[in-house]
Amino acid sequence: MLSQKSYGYAYSKVPQKTYFHPALNRAHHNLHGCRTMLKGLMDNKIKNIEEQTAILQAELSQMSEELYAQQKEIKTLRSEIKSLKSKLQSVPTDSGILTADEDVPPPHY
pLDDT tier at 37 (50, 70, 90 boundaries)? Predict the structure, then answer.
């Protein structure tokens, strides 16, 4: 078995502070317990915040990709609309297609 002196770093004990009055010893012990508990709570809160940040970063990245795809689609659709407008304006008037001014609803409307 390994001696504690040769490998003291693995099993070393933290020296305890002692006071002359027992009430001070209890208060010191309680304070140490509170500090340990608060550190644990803070570590949990930090972990939760880091997890939430990671989730938000992933969602932001996904939304950015979707926005880029939508902008690309809008650009394509605008180009198609422009092309259709130019084709519609170049249609001869005798082709049988009525313009908006010529297209009147039937009498029963």
Answer: confident
